[in-house]
């Protein structure tokens, strides 16, 4: 039996640290972490330094990381996204896999002069797209919930499924015949249809029933046990049916993708372990197999550059973007033009099966690394170039008090400026010729191809979209509902003819409602608001189309853009801000609002949660001050002055955050200080400040608890974001308000006693 020595343990720990540091350094250079991890594996692995003990064991753990990676890919599938995009998402995924496959196979045959088996293995390796790299960049840019982001996600899912089917064909390349080729395909498609149907029709109902039987504290463990048990069973089933076991792992995750909370449980309990195992996959399973001493030969370098030509097949998929603008085409194309984990899996498997030699494997790895460097950098640069100049244009086009502005086409666009004595909040926009903006929300049950149909209709209506978000409720009890919200400019209507604008809005509204005719409730709940507002009106939780006239909020004489382009940039900036607020509310509550009192009510709660983290130090300081004060038998003038100073600091800090948005730690400190002050010497000034802060919160809580706005049980999730003692906080706030009023009356009557 092999003895594990101290040097083995030490070298393994050093290797793990080096892999971690390599990934972090790669990310610091704005590159995917897998680049640094592969490089560390190549340098410290058996091919060069031979520093790592037991390389086979590390490869084995890397294979486990691969299983976790594929299982996560299945868990993260959103069936409703695939359904909403319809044929467009399917076409993007298929073309992203098949076009580079054809190009890479052809280049290997005709240019590199490989045999048919090796050429097909190269084509298989160049077909898949890296899901992790593309999604990471889109998430950082905040693009995942846009239409282009959802289209890319749908394409990546289909691309991954195609890659797994291709993987099942590798073993048959050595001795291909009709039976050996068709059996894996039929088996794979059979598993896809069977497990996919179960995920949609059976799994949600079964787990709704199971949730009633399992105590909440054991729910996560039960779900994970069933998930991994399904993975083991489907691995065996797909392997022995001549498909590939990784397809079974993916389908196990896919089977659970409709289960409520499964993604949250995965991130909380599995994600950290998976990240380390995936690092070992890139560093050991991939890096150890790269013949580093031969990789910089002319044969490998030329071969890698030749295979880069097949990247054109992935770039061409950008033509499926909607609308087909230059930025959208490059965004979709560059997102799909990143080779990564699945391609390296196929290459490593091909090497193990001796379908390709070490030089060919090095060529594939080199081409993959080049793509993971170039494409992410270009995509990140593109996203920054799309967002930054437009947002900066709003400030560049400002000229305070400008009596007129020039439109983008050079025509005069006169603006009537309000009198000097009018406040910013009262400033009207009296525009003779100015863009017409809309805020549009479409919320309905899902149907096949809904999002593609809506975006094509919007484009055909000559509406220029500034910002959009897509919110899907595709998990658990809330599955089957889609909400699309976007802000846009009407390229036809002009604000100098209000009657024409109203007729135009009516035509747009009818055209959009026709997109949701499958949902009669949504059709009946649709509405149109022609009055101009900087915050669009609420429509509660009803489904339907809400079309409203909109102008960017915060527009005053001091920041009026002087060109139509500047106005559009300002509109985009403000619409992105409003959509970001709605996105936070949707993630917390599953409800969508686009303005009004509902927005303010929920936004105040979100700010309250944020302040719990921001004011820890202030709360501790106040608590300490109060403890010192109350410990004195006879408070001195200095301690009393310090205590009051700290109260003033706390109140000033809280007031800057807005009335009523107070975190519970600071609240408790101020309550304690206020009680101490009332038991010693009355301080009406402090009480009046407290009363100014708390009544809005108290009234909001009373209104909320009575259900006057029709929220009822739907808002339990928002109760959860508040501290547990919110009721006590509100009642205390009310009492402080009453006491402050009494104290003020006492002062007004010259100190007369009052009940």
SS element count, helices: 31
Range of strand content: 5-15%
Terminal CA distance: 89 Å
Counting DSSP E segments of at least 2 residues, the number of strands comes to 8
Low-confidence stretches: 389-432, 594-598, 608-618, 655-665, 676-755
- Principal-axis shape: globular
Overall pLDDT confidence? 74
Judged by helices, strands and strand pairing, the structural class is alpha+beta
How is the main sheet built?
Answer: 5 strands, mixed
In spatial order, strands of the major sheet run 5-6-4-8-7
Helix content bin: 55-70%
Provide the gyration radius in Å.
Answer: 31 Å
Ordered list of secondary-structure elements with their pairings:
Elements (H helix, E strand, L loop, with lengths): L5 H23 L4 H12 L10 H21 L3 H7 L1 H24 L5 H11 L4 H10 L6 H21 L10 H36 L5 H22 L4 H11 L6 H8 L1 H16 L5 H4 L2 H10 L3 H5 L10 H11 L4 H12 L5 H39 L7 E3 L5 E5 L13 E2 L4 E10 L4 H11 L2 E11 L7 E10 L7 H16 L6 H5 L2 E7 L10 E7 L13 H26 L6 H19 L1 H15 L6 H20 L7 H17 L3 H10 L1 H12 L9 H6 L4 H23 L7
Parallel strand pairs: 7-8
Antiparallel strand pairs: 1-2, 2-3, 4-6, 4-8, 5-6
Helix pairs in contact: 1-2, 1-13, 2-13, 3-11, 3-13, 5-6, 5-8, 6-18, 8-17, 8-18, 9-11, 10-11, 15-19, 17-19, 18-19, 19-23, 23-24, 25-26, 25-27, 26-28, 28-31, 29-31
Please give a structural write-up.
This protein has 755 residues and is of the alpha+beta class. The protein has 31 helices and eight strands. It has helices at residues 6-28, 33-44, 55-75, 79-85, 87-110, 116-126, 131-140, 147-167, 178-213, 219-240, 245-255, 262-269, 271-286, 292-295, 298-307, 311-315, 326-336, 341-352, 358-396, 450-460, 498-513, 520-524, 564-589, 596-614, 616-630, 637-656, 664-680, 684-693, 695-706, 716-721, 726-748; strands at residues 404-406, 412-416, 430-431, 436-445, 463-473, 481-490, 527-533, 544-550. It has a five-stranded mixed beta sheet with strand order 5-6-4-8-7. A three-stranded antiparallel beta sheet has the order 1-2-3, with no helix packed on it. The longest helix is centred in the middle third of the chain and has 39 residues, at 358-396. The radius of gyration is 31 Å and the shape is globular. The model is unreliable at 389-432, 594-598, 608-618, 655-665 and 676-755 (pLDDT under 50).
